[in-house]
């Protein structure tokens, strides 16, 4: 069984994330969505809230793709999380050249730590390339419409959180 790991903070999950999950699911038999706890980023949503939002969206994707998709919170090194879930592939989404610079460094470090885990990059579809969770939160905080960037459940959660 080929297991992939798609890590991120998903604060909140966006249409861009969902696009990568859908496409990543076609590459593996089981896709683990690794939700980074990462307290340093000061997430808007708690870990439990992020996991619940991701699970709701991934239930739909799992049915559509026929691939098992599970959510796994983690706080350790990405490469150790990959070992923990039995992943031989790390799936990463790229939006722009700036993403590649960072990801290139990460792959190099991960290869030194464990060269048996491959990283696969998927380019975001053009319509999703500008979407970033950080920007979605900022637009929502300032009263802008983020309905084009997030699923309805996430939109409701943002509205509830921001009043």
TrEMBL record:
GO terms for cellular component: cytoplasm. The record marks 17 as: Transition state stabilizer. Substrate binds at residues 9, 41, 78, 92. InterPro entries: Cyt_trans-like, PPAT, Rossmann-like_a/b/a_fold. It catalyses: (R)-4'-phosphopantetheine + ATP + H(+) = 3'-dephospho-CoA + diphosphate. Keywords: ATP-binding, Coenzyme A biosynthesis, Cytoplasm, Magnesium, Nucleotide-binding, Nucleotidyltransferase, Transferase. Pathway: Cofactor biosynthesis; coenzyme A biosynthesis; CoA from (R)-pantothenate: step 4/5. ATP binds at residues 9-10, 17, 93-95, 103, 128-134. Residues 5-138 form the Cytidyltransferase-like domain. Its EC number is 2.7.7.3. Its cofactor is Mg(2+). It is found in: Cytoplasm. Homohexamer. Belongs to the bacterial CoaD family. This is Phosphopantetheine adenylyltransferase. It comes from Pelagimonas varians. The gene is coaD.
């Amino acid at each position: 069984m080929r297991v992939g790991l798609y890590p991120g903070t998903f604060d909140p999950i966006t249409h861009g994330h969902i696009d990568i999950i859908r496409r990543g699911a076609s590459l593996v038999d089981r896709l683990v969505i690794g939700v980074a706890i990462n307290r340093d980023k000061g997430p808007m949503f708690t870990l439990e809230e992020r996991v619940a939002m991701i699970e709701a969206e991934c239930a739909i994707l799992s049915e559509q793709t026929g691939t098992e998709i599970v959510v796994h919170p983690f706080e350790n090194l990405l490469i150790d999380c990959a070992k923990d879930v039995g992943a031989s592939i790390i799936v990463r989404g790229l939006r722009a050249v700036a993403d590649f610079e960072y990801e290139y460094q990460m792959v190099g470090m991960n290869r030194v730590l464990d060269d048996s885990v491959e990283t696969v990059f998927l380019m975001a579809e053009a319509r999703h390339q500008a979407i970033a969770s950080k920007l979605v939160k900022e637009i929502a905080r300032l009263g802008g419409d983020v309905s084009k960037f997030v699923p309805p459940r996430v939109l409701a959660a943002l509205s509830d959180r921001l009043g």
